[in-house]
Amino acid sequence: MKKIILTGDRPTGRLHLGHYVGSLRRRVELQNSGEFERIFIMIADAQALTDNADNPEKVRQNIIEVALDYLSCGLDPEKSTLFIQSQVPELCELAFYYMNLVTVQRLQRNPTVKAEIQMRGFSEQTVEGDTTQRQGIPVGFFTYPISQASDITAFKATTVPAGEDQEPMIEQTREIVHKFNSVYGPTLVEPEILLPDNAACMRLPGTDGKAKMSKSLGNCIYLSDTAEEVKKKVMGMYTDPDHLRVEDPGKVEGNTVFTYLDAFCRPGDLAEFLPEYASLDELKAHYRRGGLGDVKVKRLLIAVLNRTLDPIRERRRYFESRIDEVYKVLEAGSAAARATAAATLDEVRSAMRINYFADRELIEEQARAYAAKHER
Question: For the chain, which terminus, N or C, has the lower number of CB atoms within 10 Å?
Fold first, then answer.
């Protein structure tokens, strides 16, 4: 089977370090590995509109921000197909057909949907015993696991690089594929999730120590932040609240600064930026026994992060001066993605027996039947 990747991001703002360690960095590695026949990377603007319908201009303006972040991180249009979701209308048709394969109750049980509903502040009101009526939830938002399934299956993706919070979504896609193939015959491909291989990257916390880096919580370090902005955010980062004095023993577990170092520190960084320590483990051991201040550790993290972000900033400046070219990349990628999705949709229509005009056998069989009727 061909190995194909589908992944993407909602254009709700600039991308941050959580996106980078959770998927962006891995996408570039996979793109350059030569292991995959095709890689599709989507800017999911239609999905973003499910909870931004009253502010389409925000989504529209953020298309270029996400595209710049993609290109700045090293995604190559010659190796990866970068496209905009709404420019591939075949995805909507596939989602419409898949809606008949999923129950409302199954969507309500999806842990990711529950978490997203809570995070976005949609209200719930319980009525008539155990029946839950959800107030103010757009249908498009509630059914976005189905839309995501159409995105993945349209390109026959075998692999979806994503964070662990997306596992329930991929499982729901697999259920839809299984149900479709059981009813209509083998047509669609079941995808597998590809999780980050570094535990610290599974879900990078925010700078305030919250469970997840989030634009809405204001706890992000963005890929496009300046070196000075990174420094300011790191210096204000959550550490061990009980580590009040330098000589106090400190906790590494749950300490945001060390979590970031686990995610970003590379071999050789200590030798370059803090040569008195042979390794990150040695630095952690010193912090645990006391005698190491938070400021010193934060300065190391600032150096490590800016070493990572400097080439990204440089590439971003390059592409910011060539916005027309960026849109041409997205336009060409969207056309290529649409051609692939259209081919899959043709197969789906054929399997569902709704390809009326393309089914010459059906037309000729019915023509013969009616001709025979009139001959009698």
Answer: C
Give the integer Cα–Cα distance in Å for 285 and 127: 54
Residue 281: CATH number of its domain: 1.10.240.10
Task: Tell me the CA distances in angstroms from 26 to 19, 29, 156, 172, one per residue in order.
Answer: 10, 5, 20, 23
Question: Residues 181, 241: one domain?
Answer: no
Q: Once rounded to an integer, what is the mean pLDDT over residues 216-237? A: 94
The single-letter code of the amino acid at 159 is T
Q: Answer whether residue 135 shows pLDDT above 50.
A: yes
Asked if 225 contacts 187 with a C-beta cutoff of 8 angstroms, the reply is no
> Cα(39)–Cα(30) distance, rounded to whole angstroms?
9
Three state DSSP letters for 106-143: HHHHCHHHHHHHHHCCCEEEEECCCEEEEECCCHHHHC
CATH number at residue 97: 3.40.50.620
How many other CB atoms are there within 10 angstroms of residue 322's CB atom?
A: 12
pTM here is 0.88
From CA 197, how far away is CA 351, in angstroms rounded?
38
Output the DSSP codes for 278-346: SSHHHHHHHHHHS---HHHHHHHHHHHHHHHHHHHHHHHHHHHT-HHHHHHHHHHHHHHHHHHHHHHHH
Residues 179 and 269 grouped into a single domain: no
The total number of residues written for the chain in this structure: 376
Question: In the predicted model, what is the mean pLDDT of residues 98-122?
Answer: 82
Q: Cβ distance 109 to 145 under 8 Å?
A: no
Query: What pLDDT digit, counting tens, does each position of 29-75 carry?
Result: 999 999 999 999 999 999 998 888 788 899 999 999 999 999 999 99
DSSP string, 174-235: HHHHHHHHHHH-S-S---EEE--SSGGGSSPPPTTS-SS--TTTT---BTT--HHHHHHHHH
Is 329 buried (19+), middle (13-18) or exposed (0-12) by CB count in 10 A? Answer: buried
